[in-house]
Amino acid sequence: MAAKKKTSTKKVSGKYGASSIQVLEGLEPVRKRPGMYIGGTGLVGLHHLIWETVDNCIDEAMAGHATICTVRILPGNMIEVSDDGRGIPVAIHPQTKKSTLETVLTVLHAGGKFGGDDSGYKVSGGLHGVGVSVVNALSEYTKVEVKRDGKLWSQEYKRGKPKHKVKSVGKVKKDETGTKITFKPDTTIFPDTTFNFDTIVKHLRNQAYLTKGIRLDIEDAREVTGEADAYKARRHSFYFDSGIISFVKFINRGKDVRNQVPVYIEKKEGEIYVEISLQYTDSFKERLHAFANNILNPEGGTHVTGFRNALTRTLNSYARKNKILKEKDKNLTSDDAREGLTAIINVKLPDPQFEGQTKEKLGNPEVKGIVQNIFSQEFAEYLEKNPKDAKAMIEKCLLTARARNAARAAKDAVLRKGALEGMTLPGKLADCTSRRAEDSELYIVEGDSAGGSAKQGRDRMFQAILPLRGKLVNVEKTSLDKVVKSDTLKPIIIALGAGIGETVDVSKLRYHKVIIMADADVDGSHIRTLLLTFFYRYYEELVKMGYIYIAQPPLYQIKKGKKAHYVYTDEEKEALLKKLGVSEDDLDGEDGKKIAGLAIQRYKGLGEMNPEQLWDTTMNPEFRKMKQVTIEDAEAADRVFDLLMGSEVAPRKHFIQTHAKTVQNIDV
After folding, report:
1. Does the model's pTM come out above 0.85?
2. N or C: less crowded end of the chain, CB within 10 Å?
3. How many angstroms separate the CA atoms of 311 and 588, rounded?
C-alpha cells in the first residue's frame, strides 16, 4: 500500500565530486535526431523525458543516497523533478574546464555511471549517460537547482544552451543536499506536449515497487495558479515495504490465486543482484514484467530466458520426485508453466547492454546463467518447504497441459492442415478474390440479414464477409479446447488462417483488416465486447499490429428530396437539421415521418439497410468510418477484460454501480 510518511532510510555517505564524472562526446545531434535517444517525438517520447530525469533520482536511491523523489506537473505542462540525493557536483570539471553541473546538462555521455572510481554509480538505470542532457536539449527551457556544500546553486538553459554560468543563489543547511530539474518540452520538436497524469502515476508506482526505501510522490498542479487553488492538485504517494511482492499482489488483485503468498527470491552473485517474485492464478494469461536496473524491458531478454528455463525445469523435477507427474505423463512444457503465471523479474547489474536507447530488451549473456542458477536453487528449496503451494501450482500447470492437449486434438479434428492453409474455408464465408493479405478485409457481421446485404454490397475483389450465427462464448471463462470447438468462433479461426494457441503464425494471416460490424444497440455492443475479448486473449499480436477494426454504421438517414444524408450521432443529426433549416421543435413525430419535406429514418440494425446503403455508409473505403483497436496500455486492457468478462462477480458489480450514472442513451 502506498504510504505518505517519510521513510527513515539512512543515506550512505560516499565521495562524489568532479572527478566522478567522465565526458565521452558532445550534445548537438540530439535535436536533429531525437528519435535515436527517446524513441520518437510522440507521447511516448514526451513521457520518456520524465523517465530519464527520474532515473537519476532512482540511481541515487539505489546507491543509498536518496530517500524521496517528487514529480510535479506545473501549469503550461512544465515538469519539475526533485530529490534529496547528493546533488550534482558544481566544481570545475577537469576535462571540460566548466562547472560539472553544466557539463552534465550540456554534454552527451557525461554522468556518474561513467565515473572511473568507486564514487560513481555501480548500478544505474541510465544506458549511455544521455538522460538529463537529452532532456535539456529537447526542452525550450530548463532550470537546474542544486543544494550542496551549504549553498543553493542554479543554472538556466534555452534549448540546451546555458543562459548564464552556474551561480550560487542562496544558502542552505550544510547537510542539506538534493537536485531539482524543471523543464518545458520544446513545442517545435513535440507536436503534443500534454502529459498524461495516469501514465506518470503508473510509472512511478512501478519504480516504488522496484526500489525499496524510496518514496515517490506525484502531483498534477496544472490547474493550480495560487494557494487558493491548491485543492485542485491531484496527488499520489508511493512507498512499498514489500517491494515486488506488493507488485505481484497488485497485479493479481481480485483474482483466484493458487499460492496465497507470492514466492520471493533475492540473491546476489558477484556484482549481479537478482530479485524475483511470482504467483499462480486461475487465469489463462501470463503476466510477466521484466526489469533491469529498474528499467522495464517489454521484450524481455537474457534474464527472462534464464528464468523461464529454470521455472519449467524445476517444476518438472519436483513433480517427478514427488510423484505428481507419473511415469506415463509427459513433462510440462514452457507454455504449461507460463499460463496463469504472474511474475516480476528485477535484476541489477553494473554494465547493462540494452537493445535501443529505450531499453526494450536486455542482452547481457552472463545474466541468463546467473538468473537460471539462482532461481533453480532457490525455487527448488521453496517447493520443498511449501509442499501445499507447490502442489497447487503444479496442478494449475497440469490443468493447462490437459487443456492444451484437448485443444490440439480438437484442432486436429476441425482445423485440418488444408483448412489452416485456406483450402477448406467455412461455408458461410464469402471470400474475396484477392490473395494478398495486405489488401484483403474480413467483415465479421452480426446476423444473416446484415450478412446478406454485406455480401451483395461489398467489393468482391478485396472484401470477405463472414456472418455470425449462434451464441458467442465468453473466452474469459472458457478453455482453449472449448473455444476451438465453438460453432461461432471456429469459422473465424479457420477464416483467419493463422492458427490459434501455440500454433499462431501471423505470417499466414489471410486478411490485414479484420472488421467487426454489429448493430448500434445493446446486443451489438455485447457482441463487439465478446469478439474483442476473443481477439485480445488469443490474437493479441493482431491487435498490437493494428489489424482489428470496428465498423461505424450510421444511426440516421435524413432525406430531403432525392438527396440522402447519413449521420452517425445525435449531435451530427442536430447539426445537419440546423444546416437544413429545420428546428428540433418541429420534430415531434416518429422517426421516418416526413416533416418540412424531410424523411428521417433511424436504423435499428444493419439488417434495415439495403446493399447499396451499407456500401455507401459502412463499407466504401472512400467514405466509411472505422475505429482501429489499439492497446495503448496492455496491463490496463487486461485488467478491464478480466473485470468485465471474468468469473468474479463482485468487482464487476462494483464497476457497474460506480459508473451507472455516467451512462447515457441506453437502448434497451
Report:
1. no
2. C
3. 68
